[in-house]
């Protein structure tokens, strides 16, 4: 039985998890805990707890989408007095008080939704992301780092924190570790700023796989090519990747790309064509999200994710 570990946060991790859960029997997700925006940020501030949002999204991704509880965890309040809270976030906050800890709350919520795999917050500590900009300015908080509007020089945590033992164990015992996709500096890298994660990754005999984002991200990876993404990711992870996946987006509507370009986001250029580790996949899709501004967003497609699994030898013909 092949043990697969995904490392990241945000929508990138949940997009992959939602597909991979149908094809592998041992799947663990390691999720960053530096989010400080929206409902998660409010609960983090009010209750002194790690942000539940990314963990909740990934629990839902591994759950049976037809289950009523999955719909309950996904519900977001519309009343202004509820500050846009997700019901799932509030449930996890309540479980934390009942169970005595964040990881116990995540485990209980996972059991409630009978998920296909394991979701692990990378740590239980309340930590903040700190960004140093090119001009020397220091900004604290993931949302402020993303919105700074200037190129990032480096990121760190505001205090030392230790990875959960289960996180280190899962990395060391894994057969395949997939890092990304996700916001490079605010979803992927924060996991490797937690003490013990980089060390466990180095000790692991697993294949280390990097899945690059489809588009650059304004304020984080402006004009970053594939090589720049890989350089930054490898520098924080402390290892060289065995395989790197880059996505060809030739079939995406020009109107969608134009909307991204208006905001300063462009397709990531593949400038590593001669590097034998790089595998090109075709598989971007457009999804509509509705957060009050219904709009199309680019995601790795189900077919593209399955092609990655085929390339990694994680699927037989029965997985098609």
Automatic annotation (TrEMBL):
Keywords: Cytoplasm. It comes from Mesotoga prima MesG1.Ag.4.2. CDD domains: YvcK_like. This is Putative gluconeogenesis factor. It holds the Pfam family CofD. Required for morphogenesis under gluconeogenic growth conditions. PANTHER family: GLUCONEOGENESIS FACTOR-RELATED, UNCHARACTERIZED PROTEIN YVCK-RELATED. One of its GO terms (biological process) is regulation of cell shape.
């Amino acid at each position: 039985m092949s043990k697969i570990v995904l490392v990241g946060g945000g929508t990138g991790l949940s997009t992959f998890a939602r597909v991979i859960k149908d094809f592998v029997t041992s799947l663990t997700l390691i999720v960053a805990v530096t989010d400080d925006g929206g409902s998660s940020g409010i609960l983090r501030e009010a209750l002194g707890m790690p942000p539940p949002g990314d963990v909740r999204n990934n629990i839902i991704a591994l759950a049976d989408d037809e289950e009523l509880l999955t719909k309950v965890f996904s519900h977001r309040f519309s009343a202004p007095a509820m500050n846009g809270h997700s019901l799932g976030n509030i449930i996890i906050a309540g479980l934390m008080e009942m169970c005595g800890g964040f990881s116990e709350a995540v485990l209980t919520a996972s059991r409630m939704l009978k998920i296909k795999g394991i979701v692990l917050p990378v740590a239980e500590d309340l930590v903040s992301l700190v960004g140093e900009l090119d001009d020397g300015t220091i900004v604290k908080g993931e949302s402020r780092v993303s919105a700074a509007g200037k190129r990032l020089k480096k990121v760190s945590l505001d205090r030392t924190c230790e990875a959960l033992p289960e996180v280190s164990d899962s990395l060391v015992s894994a057969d395949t570790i997939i890092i990304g996709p996700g916001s490079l500096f605010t979803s992927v890298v924060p996991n490797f700023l937690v003490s013990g994660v980089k060390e466990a990754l180095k000790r692991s005999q697993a294949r280390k796989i990097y899945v690059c984002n489809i588009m650059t991200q304004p304020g984080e990876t402006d004009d970053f090519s594939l090589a720049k993404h890989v350089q930054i990711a490898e520098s924080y992870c402390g290892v060289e990747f065995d395989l790197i996946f880059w996505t060809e987006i030739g079939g995406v509507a020009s109107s969608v790309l134009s909307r991204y370009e208006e905001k300063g986001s462009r397709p990531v250029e593949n400038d590593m064509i001669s590097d034998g580790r790089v595998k090109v996949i075709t598989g971007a899709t457009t999804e509509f999200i509705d957060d009050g501004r219904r709009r199309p967003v680019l995601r790795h497609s189900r077919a593209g994710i399955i092609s990655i699994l085929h390339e990694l030898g994680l699927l037989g013909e029965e997985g098609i």
